[in-house]
Amino acid sequence: MGSKIIATERMILGNKLICTVCKNDKFWERETLMNTKGMTFFKLDWANKSAQNLVCDKCGFVHWFLKPKFS
């Protein structure tokens, strides 16, 4: 059995994050690889940069951050 994902309020550069779709204020976090055609062609997907995502716990909208500055 996997661990339970806990959604919490998050701050971005000192501002409370509010979902742009449903106005919810609870998010869970994940990391996503930013795949590119070139790296995929050479089978080097693992070397792509990653982005941090905060996913709205209510509607599922994914907020992407390339340089995360959140807490």
Explain how this protein is built.
With 71 residues, the chain is mainly beta. It has one helix at 37-41, and strands at 11-12, 15-16, 27-33, 50-56, 62-65. The radius of gyration is 14 Å and the shape is globular.
Looking at this protein, list some descriptive labels.
71 residues; mainly beta; three-stranded antiparallel sheet; two-stranded antiparallel sheet; 5 strands; globular
Number of helices: 1
User: Which residues sit in consecutive blocks of at least 5 with pLDDT less than 50?
Assistant: none
Oligomerization state of this entry? single chain
Judged by helices, strands and strand pairing, the structural class is: mainly beta
Count all strands and give the number. 5
Largest sheet strand order: 3-4-5
Amino- and carboxy-terminal Cα gap: 27 Å
Q: Cα-atom Rg, whole angstroms?
A: 14 Å
Provide the β-strand percentage band: 25-35%
Order of helical and strand elements: EEEHEE
Largest β sheet strand count, sense and barrel closure = 3 strands, antiparallel
What is the average of the pLDDT values?
A: 81
The residue fraction in helices comes out at under 10%
Shape: globular
